Structure formats: C-alpha cells, structure tokens
Amino acid sequence: MTGRSAEEQKRVTAENWAGRAAAWGQWAERMARLAEGLNEPLMSAIGIAPGMHVLDLASGAGEPALTMAARVGPQGEVTASDLVPEMLAVVQARAHAAGLANVRFQQADMEALPFAEASFEAVTCRLGLMYVPNPSRAAGEARRVLRPGGRAAFLVWGPHEDNTQFVVLDDVFHNVMGLEPHEGAFTPTRFGAAGDVTRVLLAAGFAEVEERELRFNPRVDPASRFWRPQLGLRLGDRLERLSRPERERLDAAMAAGFERFRDGDRIQLRVHARLGIGRKH
Q1: Which of 16, 20, 108, 147 has the highest CB neighbour number within 10 Å of its CB?
Q2: Cα separation, 234 vs 226, whole angstroms
Q3: pLDDT tens-digit profile of 202-226?
C-alpha cells in the first residue's frame, strides 16, 4: 500500500474487509473457540471484571467483545467497534443470538474515535492495530477515551516466519493463485518484531508500557482440512467466485504447503503473537 495517502489506504482496507465479512460470519463460532488462547491473555491484561465498561477496537466478527460482555455481566457494558459496518452486523447478530443485552455497536475509525474523553475503564484491540495507517494516532485515541488509571491492551501477530499459517497461505496465494497475499491491507505481521508495539504505545503517551510474547504450538490433523476457514477469512467473497476445479487446486496446494511441517500423523504449527499493554496516568 506504499504510495497511497492515508485516506486511500483506509478506503481500500475497508473495502477489502467488507468483502470478507460474510465469511467471517460463517466461521465466527468455530474461530471463537480456537481464539481462547489469545482472548484470555488480552482480557487478563486489562483486568476484566464484572461491572466494567470496555471499548473493543476492530471487533471483527466479535471477539473478544462478546466474551468480555459475558464477563462484565449485566452491570457492565462492552462497546464493539469496527471501521466496517458489514463486520459490525456480524457482531450484532452473534450478540443477539447469545442473548447479550450489554453490548453496544459503533462504527468507528480507530484514528478518530467518536467517544468523549475518559469514557471507558479499559480498551482492547485484538489483531487490528496492524491495519491502521497511523498506529500511534490510533493508540493515542485509545488513551484519550480511557479513564485515568485505565489500561489498554493491543494484540498483534509476531514475526511472519513464526506463524505457520502466514508462511503457507502467503506462499500459496502468491505462487499458486497469483495474488498479492495482503492485497488491500498492511501485512498482519507489521509489528512482529520485539519492541515494535512498545514503541507505538510509548509514542501515544502510555505509561507503564509492557510487552509480552505469546507462543503456541498446536498439532493438527491434516485430514481435517484445518486451513479451510483461513481461506474463507482471507479471500472472503473472492473464494465464492472460484470454480470447482480452482477450489480443488487451491485445496491441494494448501495440503501440500503444510506437508513440510508434518510430524508423524500431525501437522506441527507455530503461532506467535505479541501483547502490548499500557496505562493512562
């Protein structure tokens, strides 16, 4: 996305995510179950507790916003926000299905939040900071809407080579499909190096900044075709337009790509994320 203005970057990113919203809705429940390992450290970092009022940025299909809504209970409230209204519609449908009455929904640009200063006790952002043209400005906005003493926690992906899903998917997209792997968005591993997210939070004025490393090494059965949700999440409506032979070719390429990570009868995956935490004084 080099050479584009910030507004053009934002517009292209929004269009890209709008095209993925239906797929995210389709896989939302399965992905929520798989995301517990990322949700728990994020919620722990802000001290999630009953009665809290929390803002979740870039809520996507609804996590961790919906899990937090259950934790804060009827006396608390979670505001789910996203740049893309199509994504917010997915969150709203899932909240309604779960019977959660303490979730608000707000379309919002992370760089210019439509909330008053000191509106929330905590702010979370799971895997959204990487897609913002000016991340320090977005972090600064999160700090602005925090109450004094409140914490914000930003989860980002670690290095590309430490995340097997990106290694394989990016290779298949580029070499098999002829696609730019992250068309319409900054790379997900933009802040993958140690200290990257710390620098963003310090530039935004946060105090007591801390960065934590999260690593997981799941072993999965290749017969489960575990990569299919990721294809939907990454390709969105483009996947639906592929012919059956094209889909079969793509599926075969994914299976072959993961073979290099085989260990016995399982595929050994690597997952690396980084968690940046800051407090507003």
Answers
A1: 20
A2: 14
A3: 999 999 999 999 999 999 999 999 9
